[in-house]
Amino acid sequence: MRYTVGEIAAALQLDVLGDPDIAITGLAEPRDAGPDDLALASSPKYADALGAGHARAALLWADADWEALGLEAAICPPRPRYTLSGLTALADPGHNFGAGIHPSAIIDPTAEIGADVSIGAGAVIGAEAHIGGGCVVGPLSFVGWGASLGPNAYLREHVSIGAKVRIGARFIAQPGARIGGDGFSFVTPEKSGVEEVRESLGDQGQSTGQPWARIASLGAVVIGDDVEVGSNSVIDSGTIRPTRIGDRTKIDNLVHIGHNCVIGEDNLLCGCVGIAGSATVGNFVVMAGQVGVSDNISIGNNVVLAAASKVLTSVRDGKVMMGYPAVEMKTNLEVFRNVRRLGRVLRDVTDLKKAVFNTGSSD
User: Fold this and answer.
1) Which of the following is catalytic: 130, 158, 256, 259?
2) Catalytic: 158?
3) Domain 3-91: which CATH number of 3.40.1390.10, 3.50.80.10, 3.30.465.10, 1.20.1250.20
């Protein structure tokens, strides 16, 4: 990275304050910044740390007095954290996978390879696969039979894309992502104990153990544009129809999306989220870490699910849910408050009983 402060500001469509010609070779936290770094001090709480460093230029908060902070130049956007998105993209050197096709890559002769692709060492491209222009397929990654990657997809190392999976433009998969594995779908010859429990909410009836028969996954996965999937996350193929992920949805590490799920657009699924088969999720949904969603239910639009919530029933649009089982956050917090008071209430009841009984015996 080597830009002037003025070039950085222009790329971000922002104004520069002070000297635009200061050369910047890196980004740094305020306390660690040297004279050639752009210090990232997005709020006033970083002012003291900025003084402890040696930065001449910084990314600051909107109304910062940059001269009083001893700087020679500053960029003061209205929303610094949003600006950080473009700034880090500008500074990102990538992973140096190199251009072209590595000699050790294995590419089926029936595969279609677009222009300006990078296919890394040990990668495998299956029969009738389509790799769009500008794609990067990292080392030891796999793209299966008939799978399709849209333009400028970026697969890091050890990514697996199964047969017939269709992925849109500008897809990003972090190391170890697995897309298009078979769904976890099994059935017994007769009604199982699990089915009895779901109907009775606790009683298995007279059911006895039975062997499980596998249901094959024929539906593959369809992913929209600008989707990102984190490390070691998995998206299972649908049974008959495909599992679907909408445009611009971002999926963190260690997330599992089961077979037949339909995930809408612009969702944020944080680490260790698990969504069971045939669940439907709307648009602009945020699921915090370790959220679990039961099978065959619907999550509406603009829903927020707090960390570790377990969602067992459908959720309407706009709800903020928390707990196990998940209820509206304000209800869950009220329950927590009442549980904390429970010891005091029980002591008061005990004291009240003693007072009543003592009064009765004295008569």
Assistant:
1) 259
2) no
3) 3.40.1390.10
